[in-house]
Design brief:
Elements lengths: L1 H17 L5 H14 L12 E3 H5 L8 E6 L4 H4 L3 E10 L6 E5 L7 E2 L1 E2 L4 E6 L13 E8 L2 E3 L7 E4 L2 E7 L2 H5 L5 E2 L11 E8 L6 E5 L9 E2 L1 E2 L4 E8 L2 E9 L2 E3 L7 E4 L4 E8 L10
Parallel strand pairs: 1-2
Antiparallel strand pairs: 2-3, 3-7, 4-5, 4-8, 6-7, 8-9, 8-11, 10-11, 12-13, 13-17, 14-15, 14-18, 16-17, 18-19, 18-21, 20-21
Length: 290
């Protein structure tokens, strides 16, 4: 099973290479976009963008922490998922040998960071840290340990003092938690049918004008299932589907995108594209008409 995952991961890397991800345009883009847009505080809605692993390997300077979604074939054998999400922390240290991050999210146990070829250390932490009330925490306090010396994050000016120690502070925005709109499968409803389930697709795109749903259930036709936008910037579409496995994507103002809040992805072999994956299960109990 593990060998199969490694093969699939290499297959995906091959796809990225074949479509020119590592071509000259990408190399030119690395020096500008990954170094500037990643670090530009004026860039809008960084939290809703999709990044690639090679972008992290190509960062040329440290940036302030932020929540990202990452398409990472390298992690697939370990996690079984291509799409991962978490908080990105970086530290710039071309002459530094070893950097660790220590914070309240690990009870201040230090964990190592990875160094890219440009001397930028980075790590991505899953947003699963809970506070003393067992609620999902939003305040991350941390410091770096660079070659044995502790220091706050040079790229993050938000700092607090705790027990005589200066710590950097990162606040996980509510948007990252509350707007994780994705797929919902409804139970019995007035317009339901015994052989179908009602599936509600949701995507948060506050700045988009037109969003449509495409998948193997509508022949990937972007003109069939247009989604409706609510006042919170979430596009919604409800569709009747029989139990089974489905691949889908969204078309946002003409550009196809994955469901960034659904970590389950599969390869669409006819086009060699990565698509979001949905398994519509049979009802646990017999259908009862309302």
């Amino acid at each position: 099973m593990k060998m199969k995952k490694y093969f699939l991961a290499f297959f995906v890397v091959g796809i990225l290479v074949s479509v020119g991800i590592f071509g000259q345009n990408a190399i030119d883009w690395i020096g500008s976009y990954s170094s500037n847009e990643f670090s530009d505080p004026k860039t809008k809605d960084n939290n809703d963008k999709l990044y690639y692993y090679w972008q992290l390997e190509s960062l040329k300077k440290g940036i302030s922490p932020r929540y990202i979604r990452l398409l990472d074939a390298e992690k697939y054998p370990e996690t079984g998922k291509f799409l991962n999400k978490g908080i990105l922390f970086t530290y710039e240290g071309i002459r530094t040998e070893e950097v660790e991050i220590c914070g309240n999210f690990t009870a201040y146990r230090c964990i190592p960071m990875k160094k890219n070829k440009y001397g930028v250390f980075y790590t991505i932490l899953q947003p699963e840290f809970k506070d003393k009330n067992r609620n999902l925490a939003t305040k991350y306090l941390y410091k770096y340990k660079a070659d044995g010396l502790f220091e706050p994050d040079p790229e993050n000016q938000k700092r607090i003092e705790e027990d005589g120690t200066i710590l950097s502070e990162y606040i996980l925005e509510k948007k990252d938690i509350e707007n994780q709109a994705t797929v919902l499968i409804a139970e019995n409803e007035l317009n339901d049918e015994p052989d179908f389930r009602i599936v509600e697709f949701r995507i948060y795109q506050p700045d988009a004008t037109i969003v449509s749903l495409v998948g193997n259930f509508n022949h990937w036709n972007p003109e069939l299932d247009y989604m409706k936008k609510n006042r919170d910037g979430i596009f919604i579409f409800r569709k009747k589907l029989k139990p089974g496995e489905y691949l889908y994507s969204y078309v946002v103002d003409g550009e196809k995108t994955l469901d960034l809040y659904n970590p389950e992805t599969r390869i669409r072999y006819d086009t060699k594209e990565i698509s979001s994956y949905l398994n519509v299960e049979e009802r646990e109990k017999p259908y009862e008409r309302p």
